[in-house]
Design a protein that fits this description.
single chain; about 425 residues; alpha+beta; 5-stranded mixed β-sheet; 3-stranded antiparallel β-sheet; 16 helices; 12 strands; globular; binds protoporphyrin IX containing FE
Length: about 425
């Protein structure tokens, strides 16, 4: 039964503003779809594989992303894959997807291993850190090195500061984001945020010019070589990779390391697996498929803490989903966070149990109740890169360090656009051989 009237409005809006993944509270865990009227808009929250498949796969062409999404991502990546629709999206996806092919991933693995070694040298000097900040730093360096190569004149620190400021600013939901603004109303930015965005766009333009003059096989080179993209689309896609690929992977690693700090036996199992497969050397691409438990820990982490916890869509025509008619102008929220944690679909959903992915590998199959990378034609284009990076970082750190998280550190998962640990995760990474 739709949640309407004064009670529905106050309950849904208030919960939503405080922490959108908890919006609609217990109802969303019990029901596959919850509908509410808030601020003049009808909102459908779906936390069920069949409903998600209807929206993301079966009727994908009847939906676009919502105005909220356009307002948040638009200023940085309006003409990039993340934001475009229809024929423009189809053309871009065809051009961009080959960049993330297996043979390119193989080439990137040694570069990622190098960045991890440099990161280890830094934490050996300063073992006490905030896991969220440290992982954001590391995944930025991985993207910059593995995807951009070493272009002349690139000021990495400036690029990093600008990207962080844009991701942090754009990625923080504000109460005014929940009002049903038309797409053309710009989202106000702080002076700091808009200065950072300008710097990021300039850096991306410079990189593309530099790579056009000095061609190379890195991401920018492949993007320039990709057919059928305009200059603006190239730039917005480059920025889009940084926005979509940086914090999501950082958060997966932050939550995974936090969980290892809490579950010593799991850390020991990863360590034993990595030593058995890789010895004490940096990992290689061929070894990754043998790190099945490490991979299961990444999967289980993204089940409990999906970095993109809430996807959004807007129907362009009337569509029936789970017995409800969704109409143009309605907002549809696909709640991965609740779907991954409901007793309707999982045994012991709140238990951290990586073995569930080894006992039942079909959990990763399309249409399963596990969709950290989305589903259907718009499924994450960088998923293979993200998994490779996450397994390499988690495996190497678990092999070489003990992870110490104080007993009173218990961060609440707070949804902004991604699922961040509220207040960060203070921890120490202590070398096993000292
Ligand atoms: C799309 C999650 C890493 C680039 C998506 C979507 C999800 C997602 C859920 C679908 C959004 C929707 O349907 O509304 C994640 C997670 C990651 C990750 C959990 C890390 C653990 C990356 C990386 C890159 C990337 C490393 C690139 C370097 C993109 C792009 C899209 C996308 C460009 C848009 C695809 C399209 O619309 O065709 N991601 N992502 N992501 N992701 Fe990722």
């Amino acid at each position: 039964k739709p949640l309407t009237g004064k009670e529905g409005f106050i309950e849904a809006t208030w919960k939503f503003i405080r922490n959108p993944v908890e919006g609609f509270g217990p109802l969303a865990y019990r029901q596959p779809i919850v509908t509410a009227k808030t601020l003049g808009q009808t909102l459908h929250v779906i936390s069920d594989p069949e409903g998600m498949n209807d929206v993301l796969v079966r009727h994908a062409d009847k939906f676009t992303k919502t105005a909220i999404d356009a307002r948040i991502l638009g200023p940085a990546t309006k003409e990039g894959l993340l934001s475009v629709h229809g024929e423009q999206w189809k053309r871009q996806r065809k051009s961009v997807a080959p960049i993330f092919r297996k043979r390119h991933m193989e080439d990137l693995a040694p570069l990622i291993a190098d960045v991890i070694e440099q990161f280890k040298a830094r934490i050996d000097q300063r073992p006490n850190l905030d896991l969220s900040a440290a992982m954001a730093d590391l995944t930025f360096d991985v993207l910059a090195k593995a995807l951009l190569g070493d272009p002349k004149g690139l000021d990495r620190d400036r690029l990093k500061t600008a990207t962080r400021a844009v991701v942090t600013g754009a990625g923080t939901l504000r109460p005014d984001d929940l009002l049903p603004w038309p797409r053309w109303v710009p989202r106000p930015m702080t002076p700091r945020g808009s200065a950072a965005l300008k710097r990021l766009k300039r850096a991306a333009d410079d990189l593309i010019i530099e790579r056009t003059q000095h061609p190379a096989d890195d991401l920018v080179g492949l993007l320039i070589g990709a057919e059928n993209l305009s200059q603006r689309e190239r730039r917005d896609n480059l920025i889009g990779f940084f926005i979509a690929g940086h914090e999501t992977t950082a958060l997966t690693l932050t939550w995974a390391l936090y969980l290892l700090g809490r579950h010593r036996p799991t850390l020991d199992r990863i360590r034993a697996e990595v030593i058995a497969v890789c010895g004490d050397k940096p990992m290689t691409y061929d070894q990754l498929d043998h790190l099945t438990f490490t991979r299961a820990v990444i999967d289980e982490t993204m089940r409990l803490y999906p970095p993109a916890p809430l996807l959004n869509r807007e129907p362009q025509v009337e569509v029936e989903v789970l017995g409800r008619i969704l109409k143009p102008g309605d907002a549809v929220l696909l709640n991965n966070y609740v779907m991954h944690r409901t007793e309707r679909l999982w045994d012991n959903p709140l238990l951290f149990d990586p073995d569930r992915f080894l006992r039942d590998p079909s959990l990763r199959a399309k249409g399963a109740p596990y969709m950290p990378f989305g589903a259907g034609p718009r499924i994450c284009v960088g998923a293979a890169f993200a998994i490779m990076e996450a397994v390499m970082v988690l495996g190497t750190l678990a092999r070489d360090y003990d992870i110490i998280v104080a007993d009173d550190v218990y961060p609440r998962p707070l949804m902004t656009v991604t699922l961040r640990p509220e207040g960060g995760v203070p921890a120490s990474l202590v070398r096993t051989d000292v």
